[in-house]
Amino acid sequence: MRKIILLDHVTLDGFAAGPAGEMDWILLSDEMFGFVGELAQEADAALYGRKTYEMMDSYWPTAADQPNATKHDVDHSEWYNRVDKLVLSNTMKDIKKDKTKFISGEVSKQITDLKKQSGKNILMLGSLTAGHFLMAENLIDEFWLFVNPILLGKGIPVFSRIPDKTNLALAGSRVFPNGVISVNYTVSR
Fold it and tell me: Assuming Cys at both sites, which of 31, 96, 136, 156 could form a disulfide with 17, CB separation 3.0 to 4.6 Å?
């Protein structure tokens, strides 16, 4: 069975974005890009909410073609173009696009059916609203959180709409030189 893995940056006080969606506090490094690239190779599908998909699709398909493209740009662009994109959206449901499936109506059933199909993991990058929905439906199997050394005090929380107590098991962690700590938790069912 395929797993849905939510990968996101988070502040020490649990926010994935500032009150207006700001993410300018996120610390990045080439080492982190390489690490996330390794995680991405274990997935053959990316799951997004509409807003994140529109942002990703406006950049990643041609990022490798830019004259100043970094190794990360090239690697992630190649991955993005290779994998299936699954997009939770009620407004884009009639759009047809290669390697992209727009999901609306009976979302929980459709996601459950996708998880039963053969294949690699389904990686969810950001997409807070979609992530909150999937958490409420108990459809996320694993969390990769990149804890940034900052307190925002207010913002959009990573965890919202948790239906009940959810037990997690620590599967791994890694400390990066920039002070970010990556923690990997699996959902205990």
Answer: 156
Q: How far apart are CA 19 and CA 175, in angstroms?
A: 27
Q: How far apart are CA 113 and CA 1, in angstroms?
A: 10
Q: Indicate whether 18 pLDDT > 80.
A: yes
Residue by residue, DSSP assigns the chain as: ---EEEEEEEETTSEEE-TT---TT----HHHHHHHHHHHTTEEEEEEEHHHHHHHHHHGGGGGGSTT--HHHHHHHHHHHHSEEEEE-SSSTT--BTTEEEE-SSHHHHHHHHHHSSSSEEEEES-HHHHHHHHHTT---EEEEEEES---SSSEES-----S---EEEEEEEE-TTS-EEEEEEEP-
The domains found in the chain, sorted by start residue, are 4-187 (3.40.430.10)
**Cα 101 to Cα 97: distance, rounded to the nearest angstrom:** 8
pLDDT at 170: 97
123: tokens are: 């990686």
**Given pLDDT bands bounded at 50, 70 and 90, which one contains residue 9?**
very high
pLDDT for 161: 78
**Given this model, what pLDDT does residue 95 score?**
82
pTM summary value: 0.92
